[in-house]
Amino acid sequence: MRLLGPFAFALCLAAAPAAAEDPLPRHDVPLSKQGNLVVALCDGETSIEVPGVKPGDALTREQGQKIADALMKEWRQKHPNAEWVTVAQEGGQEGGTAVSVPEPRGAAADQYQTYGAFTERDQQIWKESTDRLVAEGKRIFHDAKALGGTAAISCDMCHPDGSNTHPETYPKFQTQLGRVALLRDMINWCIENPVRGKPFPDDDPRLKALEAYILAQRKGVALEYGKH
Description:
Blueprint: E1 12-13, E2 37-40, E3 47-50, H1 61-78, E4 83-89, E5 97-103, H2 108-111, H3 120-141, E6 172-174, E7 179-181, H4 183-192, H5 205-216
Antiparallel strand pairs: 1-2, 2-3, 4-5, 6-7
Helix pairs in contact: 3-5, 4-5
């Protein structure tokens, strides 16, 4: 498992095998013969069964921490060459809690990968896929009809080439909304107001493409959430 940047793991509850027509890749977690809860890491390999606990049972945070600790203990045993460093969270240096995250060192960096071994060809495919999403976002950004607008106004008329959008400053309080907003909230505000269209649902591919394009225009800019 190669660890790209700060390592984070996801917990996946046991699910039925993916349908043959399901186009999306997924990690199927082994089912318990006793019907117990099975929890897995995002590596798609490491999982544990929780005796006496059924899927859907309410657990305490302490119980959840024990499950997570057991999973990570097993993962670290499988990958003894992954170095762990401690980083401060939730409160910074004063009063913050410390979380250990694995960091590859030397040859270990070539031995461990997040979702299994991948090649230069894989990386090229991923890059091209991302570039296509950004290009689609650019197209929509410059097309009032694609935005669903009724006033012939497109995003680029106020933000040429994605300028003055500052996605790196979200989340932040926006007076237009009267609350803390994400980038997608402000995209929808603009679609609903100057563009005079209907806001996109969160799972709308157009909204995702717009976010990708706007973020791509600020590549290399440091994150500074909350900045105005």
